[in-house]
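CORE FACILITY INTAKE
Project code: CF-77B
Contact: R.S. (postdoc)
Sample description: multi-component assembly, two entities in total
Requested service: structural model of the whole complex
Turnaround: standard
Below are the sequence entries exactly as provided by the requester. Do not edit them.
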Amino acid sequence: MPRRPRRTRSALSAAGIVVAVVLAFCGLALVGVVIAFVVAMNNYGSNK
Amino acid sequence: MIRRLRVVVLLARPAVLLLLCVFAALGMALTGTEQRPALLGCVVLSVIGFLLFSVVLNDLADEPIDRVNVPGDRRRPLLTGAADRHEMFAVAGGGAVVALASAALLSWQCAAVVLVGMALSAAYSLHPVRLAERGAVASLVLPACYVAVPFLLGLWADHPALSGRGALLLGGLYVGFVGRILLKDFRDVRGDALFGKRTFLVRHGRGPTCLFSAVGTAAGTGLLLAGLPGCGVVVVVSIVGCLAVTLVLLWLLAGDAGPRRDESVIAGIAILGRGALLLTLTQLAMVSRDWPTLGQSVALSAIAVVTIGQAISMVRTGPYTRLRAPVDLPVVELHHNVAP
């Protein structure tokens, strides 16, 4: 059964998630989580 | 059970839910209550219930049009057969109950906001009112549901009061979202025209729609910046930078380059809009926690760079799709016979 190759995360997504983690560690947990989700979901092409 | 849960997750439209949660978080951040788990839980539950109610009514009402615009879309359980109409009504009813009950736990004002929002949602989708078919009115009502309901829930979670700054922020978010929501009709223009759904795009065409969107986005950004506390140079440059790239993309969209190109450009504009919201949320949270100016500048600049970079990347390569060629696909030599 062929396995689908794992999609590598883009440098921009990785950078956004790093920023989110730094914010979360500095006491802005909710903001960090929201940023991580938004940055990660930006690739899926929502029109809103 | 798993199938039903999956249907509920699909109907909650994760990307839209996230957007509504950001509006709610902005309201909470303005009053400094965003890190209180009990309040946050009630607000998020209420937003989820409200969104489920609105999406299900819209999916039920738009079923024939969606069969033309988005045939076989996995995110539409009614179209794929993953859910029948009875299940859809059950989800809408359950969503309404959860939304109202969670809001009532916060205050009666929050419950009233949810009730008015659900009435507007029903009027947007259902006959005889069916605001969705009334051109610009639809573009003014839908953002009221999507922006005002979650923002006010967040803002009034602890103490129901609307300050001047809160009103400015709400106005900016609303006007900016009116500008963005007009663009969603580009994807659906064929079915909308076929079924006589007179959206702003169907009535006025591509150029005026992009112009109206540009004016809304610019005005929304202005109001947002006016309502933002501790508004320094970096946050202004970051948010205005997102606006500038948005205006360039709208100019590109005004020239017809095909539906796939439209989809990528509109997704890029949506990324920039969500990025401006993130910058606003981050600024509010950092100001309320007295972050040093240098830390604020670094965080805001990084988010702006990531946002603009992702938007440009989206415009160039299009959205991520599940369609992938299998790894063991044999290489086939194609011979093109091109007539001279």
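Facility notes:
- The mean pLDDT of chain B is 89.
- The longest helix of chain B spans residues 259-288.
Invoice: internal transfer
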